[in-house]
Amino acid sequence: MGMWKVDSSEDVIRMPDQRSAQAARQAAREARARVREERVEREKRLARAGETVAVELARRDITVGEHERRAGEALRLMVHSEGLTVRDALRWCGVPGLSAREALQMMRRLDSDSTEGTQSSRSGDQITADECDGDASAP
User: Fold this and answer.
1) What confidence score (pLDDT) does residue 121 get?
2) Are 100 and 136 in contact (CB under 8 A)?
3) Is 94 left (phi over 0), alpha (psi -120 to 50) or beta?
């Protein structure tokens, strides 16, 4: 009497079918657990990759900022100390695509960096487009 009978008025499952159903439920639980584990691992990989992107771009921005500051200092020396116009300074630089506007911005950034936390003396406005020989674009 190891078998259960099916009562047609109630859906009673025979014992061999119950074992199969239990095994199927267990297999489904294990499959869901694997999917969850894979999802967690993927999210960890994506999080690490996202952090790497953010860190590397922040490092890039710092490096670019440092180089632009030094370029601005050299341009300022050429314009203020040597008396060149921005346009003439750009000719000395020989950098294709470097506009007078960008050069002015690099020099003005030096002034804003040095006056951060204090009231600006508007010394950045000392260099104007007029110093570019009336031309605010690249030579």
Assistant:
1) 40
2) yes
3) left
Tokens of 89: 């300074």
- What are the tens digits of pLDDT across the range 9-54? 555 555 678 889 999 999 999 999 999 999 999 999 999 999 999 9
Which CA distances in Å does 110 have to 8, 38, 103, 107? 90, 50, 11, 5
Helices (runs of H) and strands (runs of E) counted in the chain = 3, 0
- 17 vs 22: CA distance, rounded Å: 9
Q: What is the CA radius of gyration of the chain?
A: 36
CA–CA dist 41, 22 (Å, integer): 29
